[in-house]
Design goal:
By secondary structure, the chain is α+β, with helices and mostly antiparallel strands. The chain contains six helices and seven strands, in the order αααβααβαβββββ. Strand 4 and strand 5 form a beta hairpin. This is Fasciclin domain-containing protein.
Length: about 140
């Protein structure tokens, strides 16, 4: 069994979150999500960004406040494994907005299915989603 890594190291190692990692880097969040926590991250994979024109992504990256709001909508303070999420109806994201947790044969966050769950890190957990959560 390999040694657990922090959230940032794990996301980089998984290799499917380049836009998310670029946003976190631009916002100076690497230290926070490497050393603080625990956090639960609902991480959109790279193909979630494909339908969005590059110009829109570039614009979002230029608006620091907007980008921070989007990133923080994917993160919850505390470590929530799927076993615990199944008993929760709402979570408060770091941006202060509510995420709705539901079950429809599958575990959903704001209607988006968690595709890969419970990727444990030293300072939290990552759940992989295939769409971007929009606050």
């Amino acid at each position: 069994m390999s040694e657990q890594k922090n959230i940032v190291e794990t996301a980089i190692e998984m290799g499917d979150f380049s836009t998310l990692i670029s946003a976190a880097k631009k916002l100076g969040l690497f230290n926070k999500f490497s050393n603080e926590g625990p956090y639960t991250i609902f991480a959109p994979i790279e193909r979630a960004f494909e339908p969005i024109p590059d110009s829109v992504i570039d614009e979002a990256f230029e608006d620091r406040e907007y980008l921070m709001d989007i990133i923080n909508y994917h993160i919850v303070e505390g470590k929530y494994l799927t076993s615990g999420l199944k008993n929760i109806q709402t979570l408060t994201a770091l941006n202060g907005k509510t995420l709705k947790v539901s079950k429809n044969g599958k575990l959903l966050v704001n209607g988006i299915e968690i595709k890969k769950e419970d990727i444990e890190c030293t300072n939290g957990v990552i759940h992989v989603i295939e769409e971007i959560l929009i606050p």
